[in-house]
Amino acid sequence: MVRKITPASEDYSQWYTDVVQTAEMADYSPVRGCMVIRPYGYALWENVQQGLDRRFKATGHQNAYFPLFIPESFIRKEAQHVEGFSPELAVVTHGGGKELEEPLIVRPTSETIINSMYAKWIQSYRDLPLLINQWCNVVRWEMRTRLFLRTTEFLWQEGHTAHATAQEAREETMRMLEVYRDFAENDAAIPVIPGRKSDSEKFAGAVDSYSIEAMMGNKWALQAGTSHFLGQNFAKAFGTQFLDENNEMQFVWQTSWGVSTRMVGAIVMVHGDDQGLRLPPRLAPVQVVVVPIWKSDDQRASVMAVAQDVTQALGTAFRCRLDDREGVSPGFKFNDWEMRGVPLRIELGPRDVEKNQAVLVRRDLARKENKSTAKLEALSAAVGEQLEAIQGNLFAQASCFLQDNTSEPQTYGALREAVEDGFALAYWCGSADCEAKVKDDTKATIRCIPLNQGKEPGRCVCCGEPATEKAVFARAY
Ligand SMILES: [Zn+2]
Questions:
Q1: What is the 231 CA–ligand 1 centroid distance (Å)?
Q2: Distance (Å) from CA 394 to ligand 1 centroid
Q3: For residue 79, what pLDDT is reported?
Q4: Cα–Cα 20 to 30 A to 308, which of 229, 366, 406, 463?
């Protein structure tokens, strides 16, 4: 039998772990805090990578690779950076059987080592902008870990760009935030709130940090991608300079931006239900599964022949799998693929073969409304239409959920109540004291200050002082 998944309403955290493990996406490793990404989870990550990588290249970026190890002295060069990362650093002190002259840091992020190279590569304004991305692993020593969401080692991409002017770097910061929003909403079917981070939540070493924030199934927030305007902080620390058009030396202006394997956790938590995963068709490792149904050997021969033809034909346009396992019932297969979140199932029985048709079953709809039939000659077109509809419906469902669970409290009492069960969009005066008070009282933090908001002034929900912007307050992963 398919392993039982704890209902989300009973224990959301256990539900998440059950789904990730039962669907064979990831497992715990012998090293505390690290995870093993299994083939099904990795196939989903590969599709995330492809969706992002395509967009990076379309916006002029190239991939490169920098070392895993960073000399300890590099990390110390930018004061805020080292302060922000110190407690999380893994340090290598020995190599080749000897104590190293200078310890090496296992990269928590690569601003420093990349700047040491950019300082060499960039000479003149003609070398700018320099637009590089790296796909790699990073290590941040975490005390409390959770598969995909927070692990000591994780996979990600980190973009690092250098520009001649602050304005160009700021434009790049926003361009990549928009790339992340576009990917999250159109490929992952996850509605997000793009916004600016408060000072207490921004990246160590950045002038300004921006993020896309998504609402998980338990109404907590998850930061699904970040884009930072670094100003000249790292350029000054590493002497990353160029000769401008007037033959004067200038420091470059920089950005960095990243999306990690957390995105996989977000996909699980935004779309999953008590049956297991529900994957958006654009990212699903298997988009369509064909399940043949028969009782007698005669039926088996004719059904299997058609099932193989159908799988082959659909395979030219879709990621399609034939489930020809022996010794398990069709019902078992239905549950199994539902649990794995395959968007569309095609059932093919003896009567369907006689009628030259197949039954299509959607994963995103309730049991009574999820079935339709299509003639075999029109199957490919029907599958394409259904997958598009599923992609759109998952986004619509998640958008309604976000909207229904976001409130705009006007008083501090209402804010305290609101963040217990959703996002609260409320005026904030900008003071760190008010931010800290909310966190102490409710455990909710400022997730971001949304970019798209009205300009009419109001009063801080915490202290009552004049405020010009609203912030999203929420509990967060
Ligand atoms: Zn205030």
A1: 27
A2: 37
A3: 80
A4: 366
